[in-house]
Every structure is written in structure tokens, then in C-alpha cells.
């Protein structure tokens, strides 16, 4: 009789928070590249401002808490928060928008709750919501895809626009948002929503030049680029498929049902999935390991909830996009989700 | 005299209805967008608190224990109605600004809390003083909250004070700074929660420092000699 001792089947891979976070922002590169290609250099300026603000506010918070700032900088979570907020806001918003938003994200949403790992709400999205409800004009001045715009914006113009609100030739954001026909252009989701509320049919609403691609010029490619980065994150096992899968499913199923049963008011599946912040939200924002549910089943429910809430807000709510609000609402439900989806440990009771 | 000091300290600091008991948050958070509204509601609440405390204290021996809560509520509702009609008659614009939150004073738990916890067990003059101090404590927090929110969200202080205090108060208005785009969040309800959280944190911080200072003299360590001479 032999007693063989098997080694533990646990594989262990050392992966620090810093490495995880580094992969997250490296995988944002395709999305940021697409944003730059279609909308100009503004997003880089926003990212730079957000990073500077995040580093300084984080250091200030750690100093107030009597800890080492370097310790907080080293985990790179503030960098991810700052970058996510920077790509979420309109690329040519005035500089103080991103400064206020990032400071709020870091100081109130992250450090007031106790720093990294303790926050209840997604810092980037809480900062975004603060900005959206406080400064609705600046936060809805989305730039027009460069191929449709009447005035193109070069790098020097971007700097001047973010810094002072005017380009070097003296155009302000409102003028820059006009298309070649001289009419102010809205984002695809906003445009469709406004047209549907004016009792136009979806076909009429989609007849505008901005919809020459399937889901809006620029926006579709931005979303596909973020999808690419997100798939890379799943491949690298930085995130599991449950949250993005649940989110896209929760958004797709109701929108298909709506297209089938109430086609007159439906925004449409392709627009839902490939416009607004869908892919950025599904793969980069909702997957925040701190504020999402813990177990895989819980993550699936968490994703489904965000997707469904986004659909509800986009269809009936007051805002054209609803990812940020949906993420915050789902963050509130996380303790409940975690409670009811807790897996049963082997040997610790069960259903029978 | 010690009783007076005790009541003052309880009402204004250690047992402050807004900061410690966290009672009456509904009106507290809803109407403190400006200092004027905060002051109006604070004074109204204080009036109701004093009136109900005195009345409850006077009738406390005649009210059967089983039905005391309904009786207290009736007393409070009476005073709220009185103050509502008074504001409606003399300060109509303030009445419109405060809206539903004047009648809602009746649901302010701080008032029935004081009636139950203090006025129903103590003589009327102490109860009146307790009502005054609790009301002052509540009003002070309202004013602080209203001031912070008005400065952040509007850049002004005492805007519209003439609604409450008469024509001369127009000159009270202070323009702290002028911005094109104020931080709207501060004057929306979420801002009230956030600012309130910071005020409570500040109070706890002050308490913490006081406690530490009070304990410090005890911490004198005398060095014991452990090696043999």
C-alpha cells in the first residue's frame, strides 16, 4: 500500500495590481488611436491633464492620510481611473472639466472611502456623472468626426481649444460642431433619440450623413477598436468574459425585442452595440475589479444589469447614453448580488 | 446653572440633532441650497421645537402613556400649521421657496425625538431651553451646509436674504466669486449628501483631536530601571 503525495494543483502566477493595470491601459491603445484618427488630438490633452491631476491629488490624499504617496502611485490604479475618465469626456472640453472630474474621482470617490480596493463606486464613472450633471453644456459638446466637419482641428488648435475654448482662428466649440452643411451635428445616439422623439421613423432618423457607416461615422470604429482591446484583455486573462458578455447580452436582448415588437421607437441593435460608450463601458469600465461583483455568476448578473439599465436609459431616459449611470446603479447592487451568488465552499453545506 | 450648560453643550455639539443624531435629514438636505432658505427653515424648526417642547412638557402628567405619541404628533402638527400660516401671510416669497418643506417639518424626527426623550420627562422651562438649544444646533448646521453649498454652487452668500429679513438685507449679498459655469452638483441633492458627509467628518475629527489632547497628560512614561545597579 503506497501513499503517494500529490503536489497541490494550484498554479500560482504572480501578477501585481500594477501589472494588471498596465495591461488595462495598454489595451486602450487601439481605442485611443481610433479616437485620435476620427476626432483629433484632444483626447491626448485630456489624458495628459487627467494624469497630472490624478498624480497630484493622489499624493495629496496619501499625505493627508499619513502614508507614502509612492505606495499609492505604484499600483497604477489612479492612472487607469484618469485615463478612463479622459477618454469618456468630449475631447475638446475645457481644461478645468477634466481637472475637476479627476480630482473628484480620486479624492471623494476613491480616498474618502479608504483608497484602493475600498471604494463603493467606480471612480471614473462617478467623476463622469459629477461632470455631466454639473456642466451639461461642456459635457455634451461632442466633436464632429473630422471627415464631416466644416473646420478641421490641428494639434495647435486642440491645445488652444482645451486651454481657452477657442481655436487659433477664433472658432469656439459650437462653431466647430457644425458639419459641412453648416448645421450643428449631434452624436449618433443623441441624433437618433431626438429624431425618434420628433416622431420620425428610424429609417428617416438614420438618413443623416453621420450614419454613412453602420452605426455612425467614427463612433463605430472607436467602439470596434475598444472591442479589440477588450478581447485582448480577455485573452490575457486580465478580465473574465462574464461582465462584458453579460453587459452586451443585457443590452442586445431587449434591443432585439424592441426592434421586433416596437420597431417605430427602437434605436436598433447595431447602434446600441457600436455607438456611444458601449464597448468602452463593457470591457474597460464595468470590469473594474473593485466595484464589480466577485463570483463569476455574480459578474454575469452584474453585467446583465448594467446592459439592461443602459438600454432603459437610452430608450426612455433623459440622456442619450446611460453607461455611466447604469454602472453606478449596478455598483449599488453589488453587495446584494454578492450575497445571493456566493459559491458554496466544498464541505460547507449545500442545497440538500 | 450646570443644567443650562449641559443642555447647551448637548444641543450645540455632543448631541447635535443634525450632526450626531442625524435626524431631520429630509428638510436639512433638501432646502439648504442657499443660506436664506437654510436660515428660514432653521428658524421655523426652532420655533416648532420650542413650542412643542413646552406644550408636551406641560401636558406630560395628563397624557396616558399608551397614546402619548399621537398626542405629541398632534401638538407638533399644530405648531407647524401655525408657522406655515405665519410664513404664508408675512413672508410669501420665502413660503414659495421653501414649498413643501414647511409642512414637512412635522415629520422631522428631531422634534418628536426631543418631545419623547426630554420634554415628556422634564419641567417646562428646561424643556423650552432644550428646544432652543437643539433648534440652534440644527439651525447652525443648516446655515453651515447652506453656506458651503451656496458658495460652491453659486459663488454667492446670502443671495435673496431680503425674502426673509426685509428690504435692507439686499446689501447682505456677497459675491464670493463669479464663474460662468457653477458646479451645479453642489446645489443638487447629491451635493447636500456629500457636503454633509464632510461636515460630519470634520466634527468627528475635532472630537478626535480633543480626546487625544485630553488624554495626553496620562501618557507620561517613567523609565524603569531593569538592570541591577
UniProtKB/TrEMBL annotation, chain A:
Per the record's keyword annotation, is Transmembrane included, yes or no?
yes
Q: Does the keyword Transmembrane helix apply?
A: yes
Q: Which key words tag this protein in UniProt?
A: Cell inner membrane, Cell membrane, Electron transport, Flavoprotein, FMN, Membrane, Phosphoprotein, Translocase, Transmembrane, Transmembrane helix, Transport
Its membrane topology is listed as: Multi-pass membrane protein
GO BP, one example? Answer: transmembrane transport
- Give start-end ranges for the coiled-coil region(s): none
* Residues the record lists as FMN phosphoryl threonine modifications: 187
What the entry lists under NCBIfam families is as follows: PRK00816.1, rnfD
Q: How does it assemble?
A: The complex is composed of six subunits: RnfA, RnfB, RnfC, RnfD, RnfE and RnfG.
Return the protein name: Ion-translocating oxidoreductase complex subunit D
Q: What species does this protein belong to?
A: Pseudidiomarina aestuarii
Encoding gene (name): rnfD
UniProtKB/TrEMBL annotation, chain B:
Name the protein family: Belongs to the NqrDE/RnfAE family.
For this UniProt entry, which segments traverse the membrane?
12-33, 39-59, 71-91, 97-115, 127-148, 181-202
Q: Spell out the subcellular localization from the entry.
A: Cell inner membrane; Endomembrane system
Q: Spell out the GO cellular component terms annotated for this protein, sorted alphabetically and separated by semicolons.
A: endomembrane system; plasma membrane
Membrane association type: Multi-pass membrane protein
Q: Would you tell me the protein name for this molecule? A: Ion-translocating oxidoreductase complex subunit E
Its keywords, alphabetically, are: Cell inner membrane, Cell membrane, Electron transport, Membrane, Translocase, Transmembrane, Transmembrane helix, Transport
Q: Which organism is it from?
A: Pseudidiomarina aestuarii
Query: What HAMAP family would the database entry show?
Result: RsxE_RnfE
Question: What does the subunit comment say?
Answer: The complex is composed of six subunits: RnfA, RnfB, RnfC, RnfD, RnfE and RnfG.
Question: What EC numbers are recorded for this enzyme?
Answer: 7.-.-.-
Relate the protein's function as given in its record. Answer: Part of a membrane-bound complex that couples electron transfer with translocation of ions across the membrane.
According to its UniProt entry, the protein's GO biological process terms are:
electron transport chain
